[in-house]
């Protein structure tokens, strides 16, 4: 059985043909989104890419992971910061009309947790919390095998729980959100803020100032980098321990570019969370790195069709 996953971003979109049973991506294309051309043209180009990679295969449905507030039942994008003119935009119905296929649309962070459930570290689990640490911090929750989205389908904004009430300004307008402390954007900001005090930091001798440079420098014992990593780990530990208390997951999956830091992130995170959770929660969960890496977007989107299309 074959399904198509569409990972929609503000700059690029990726389309993959997925073998549902194995999760193998058989074909994949990436195109520029070109938001300025208008919504209908964007969807038309998505449809062209879908039909191109689906040619010769009996595709059962299309799943789309889209940024923004999504009305899953209707496939309408209510609001998306990456697509300023997409207010109440009929992404699902329009894409279905252009392709002749059944289309299912979900928020990209929710798609991420579904991807983990169907193809990743969450396979075989009924209670999952997933965080993706990239430009921002996205999150999704599955409880009793059901995706938790709330009344309007826009719940589980895990990246916007407030960790430091008087902390740094977040893109959402609040202060001290998890996203403002543990995203790749936040890590870069903290590095640049520390440059005046630590001008000789190894971070600034790397090819670019980014999250990877910070973690690499921390491994080399750099003082600024170690301070930043400690702050990131502390923020994540507070957030994750709260999610464990609220949702009682079997597994917490962390993905996105920041997760590639590996043990320097995960080892202290596990230790701090273990210290923070109530005694009754100890031993009830595990914290793991997502195995999906580059394919998380496409496989997550494909999982939307599997989850809701009953394919």
TrEMBL record:
InterPro entries xrefs: ATPase_NBD, ROK, ROK_cs
Name under which the protein is recorded: Glucokinase
GO molecular function: kinase activity
UniProt family annotation: Belongs to the ROK (NagC/XylR) family.
Alphabetical keyword list: Kinase, Transferase
UniProt keyword annotation of Protease present: no
Pfam families hit by this protein: ROK
């Amino acid at each position: 059985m074959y399904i198509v996953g569409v990972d929609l971003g503000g700059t690029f979109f990726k389309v993959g043909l997925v073998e549902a049973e194995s999760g193998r991506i058989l074909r994949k294309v990436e195109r520029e989104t070109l938001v300025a051309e208008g919504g209908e043209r964007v969807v038309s180009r998505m449809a062209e890419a879908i039909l191109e990679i689906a040619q010769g295969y009996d595709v059962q449905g299309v799943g789309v992971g889209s940024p923004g507030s999504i009305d899953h039942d209707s496939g309408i994008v209510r609001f998306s910061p990456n697509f300023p003119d997409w207010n109440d935009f009929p992404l699902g119905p329009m894409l279905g009309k252009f392709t002749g296929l059944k289309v299912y649309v979900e928020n990209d962070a929710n798609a991420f947790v579904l991807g983990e459930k169907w193809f990743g570290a969450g396979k075989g689990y009924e209670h999952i919390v997933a965080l993706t640490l990239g430009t921002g911090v996205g999150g999704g929750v599955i409880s009793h095998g059901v995706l938790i989205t709330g009344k309007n389908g826009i719940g589980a904004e895990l990246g916007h729980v407030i960790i430091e009430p008087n902390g740094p300004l977040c893109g959402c307008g609040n202060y001290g959100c998890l996203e403002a402390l543990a995203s790749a954007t936040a890590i870069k900001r903290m590095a640049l803020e520390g440059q005046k005090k630590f001008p000789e930091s190894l971070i600034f001798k790397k090819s670019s100032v980014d999250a990877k440079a910070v973690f690499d420098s921390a491994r080399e014992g750099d003082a600024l980098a170690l301070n930043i990593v400690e702050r990131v780990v502390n923020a994540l530990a507070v957030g994750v321990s709260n999610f464990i208390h609220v949702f009682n997951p079997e597994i917490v999956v962390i993905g996105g570019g920041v997760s590639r830091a590996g043990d320097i992130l995960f080892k202290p995170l596990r230790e701090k969370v273990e210290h923070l959770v109530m005694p009754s929660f100890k031993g009830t969960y595990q914290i793991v790195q997502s195995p999906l890496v580059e394919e998380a977007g496409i496989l997550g989107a494909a999982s939307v069709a599997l989850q809701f299309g009953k394919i």
